[in-house]
Write a structure and sequence with these properties.
Blueprint: H1 10-23, H2 27-54, H3 57-75
Helix pairs in contact: 2-3
Length: 79
């Protein structure tokens, strides 16, 4: 485990503290979760860029279209 010191504007730090309180988390845990989300998005983008560069861009886009459709179905309100 590493310790990382960051400098933030006071208003940003206060908003993060408020968000952490609202979610019932420590600021440390909130930053850990937000960092994990950012890294997952970066990893996904990197994966798709590599796939497009090495493979068939049309196939990669078709996969993304299927994922978008599946997500739309999963978030559609129930009647």
């Amino acid at each position: 485990m590493s310790t990382l010191t960051i400098r933030l504007p006071d208003d940003t730090a206060e908003r993060l503290r408020a968000l952490a309180r609202r979610r019932g988390l420590s600021v440390n845990k909130l930053i850990e979760e937000l960092s994990a989300q950012a890294l997952a998005a970066w990893d996904t983008e990197s994966h798709f860029r590599a796939s497009a560069a090495m493979g068939d861009p049309a196939r990669t886009l078709a996969i993304l279209d299927r994922l978008d459709a599946a997500e739309a179905d999963a978030t559609r309100p129930l009647d």
